[in-house]
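Researcher: I'm comparing several assemblies side by side, and this is the next one on my list. It has 268 residues spread over two chains. Same procedure as the others: predict the full complex and return the structure.
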Amino acid sequence: MSPVFLILAVFTLASAVGAMVLRNLIHCALCLALTFVGIAALFIQLNAEFVGLAQILVYVGAVAILIVFAVLLTRSSETPPSDRVFSRSWWLGAGVAVVTLSTILAAVVRSPSLNRPEAKPVSLTVKTIGTELMTKYILPLEVMGLLLTAAMIGAVVIAMRERKP
Amino acid sequence: MTPLPAYLLLSAFLFAIGLAGALTRRNAIMVLIGIELMLNAANLNFIAFWRYGLNPQVLTGVMFVIFSIAIAAAEAAVGLALIIAIYRHIKTTNLDEVDAMKG
């Protein structure tokens, strides 16, 4: 296990835990951005540079900022000290998460076929990805464009102030 | 060289953290953050399996992650718009207080 991976893994997991347990929602959003940066670094480590950069662009640049805006618009950054952060049935949710985690861990640890060597590095250039997107994956690409347009219009319509009747 | 199971274990932990957050926090925005974490854990799995797969010249894993990132962006935009609309109607984002349809 390389030390770079260890450092990135600890960084990512610590900021993910921070994003889930902190009280102030702005702090949570900033921790989330750190988690996204860690995952992007892991992508780059895995030879998928384009995906890592897209991750930084989309998640750190757009989604994290969007979440900060939503927190500010709903005035929910500070929970008053008398208020609970976790729901009343938190033990149920935590139990489900622990059961899921142990199931996946057992499956990963027990499976013998996962101990394969790393394939030899491929040169994944942006040109290759672009050619694939424009030839083999042209239909999914168009559908994705349609979906993003529909989602954008839908988000604007939903969040628009309603007219008084 | 990092073995494949290390990446899978890391993504399993990320998924569990996101799931726990989405199921236990009261604020709707935190639930959305948990869902984003789970999506990222799945993306990490896709890239790891692509990198350690038999045939990394075929870009299926990378393409899946690129489309998944686009889906996640659309989902975050619509989800946050819904949360803002809910806040405008009943002045709260705590999910246990949004019970107008409770029988």
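Model: For your comparison table: Helices of chain A lie at 3-21, 25-45, 49-73, 90-110, 126-135, 138-159.
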